Amino acid sequence: GENVEQHPSTLSVQEGDSAVIKCTYSDSASNYFPWYKQELGKGPQLIIDIRSNVGEKKDQRIAVTLNKTAKHFSLHITETQPEDSAVYFCAASWVTGGGNKLTFGTGTQLKVEL
Amino acid sequence: EAGVAQSPRYKIIEKRQSVAFWCNPISGHATLYWYQQILGQGPKLLIQFQNNGVVDDSQLPKDRFSAERLKGVDSTLKIQPAKLEDSAVYLCASSSHSGYTFGSGTRLTVV
Question: How far apart are CA A26 and CA A14, in angstroms?
Fold first, then answer.
């Protein structure tokens, strides 16, 4: 089955700096790569996703890049703000008509310091 | 649209007791998932339903866990008997072509 590794496990940055979180996956059949933000006491919330036919996607301060050959994908947050502090999870999936099972990474605790 | 509803939010039970969690997915979402999230880890899929049929339950410990989805809408997940290692947050999610949404989860503590 799919295996997703995520690094780093914790990341501390100064407000305004950029943050980068990296993931690798094992199953070349995976074609959908979402990123989730999870705040304390809440369920994961989708912040951005990318499909395997695209190399990069950007949404305001958040961007995701995908290297299918190397099976790597990364989350980039620019101009970090205190409200970006949370746990971030990457995931990989093979999307079918019957839904998609997400395999998650182990999470990155991001702390944005004033 | 209303989100994925789960109850209860918290539950504390003793080992060997039984417990049940309830989930109401987003209206019209045919696919429903139960994930287990142990503290400090990413969510792990327990079971996936398409309408009221099971698509994937390969990671469900069937000797103690069971789940059903009545009439293709609400779902319940049951643990009987509970073990200490079942302490976790149990997340329900639903999906359609438009997206995948998680509920806030039920935090289970087994003592």
Answer: 33
Residue type for A39, please? E
Chain A residues with CB under 8 Å of B42 CB are 4, 6, 89, 91, 104-107
Q: Which of A40, A95, A102, A109 to mutate to test the interface with B (most CBs of B within 10 A)?
A: A102
| pLDDT tens profile B53-98 | 999 999 999 999 999 998 889 999 999 999 999 999 999 999 987 7
Distance CA A88, CA A44 (A): 8
By the 8 A CB rule, do B36 and B44 touch? yes
Please give the full DSSP string across A21-78, using - where no structure is assigned: EEEEE--TT--EEEEEEE-TTS--EEEEEEETT-SEEEETTEEEEEETTTTEEEEEE-
Q: Which residue of A has its CA nearest to B53?
A: A98
Q: Of A40, A60, A36, give the one whose Cα is nearest residue A48.
A: A36
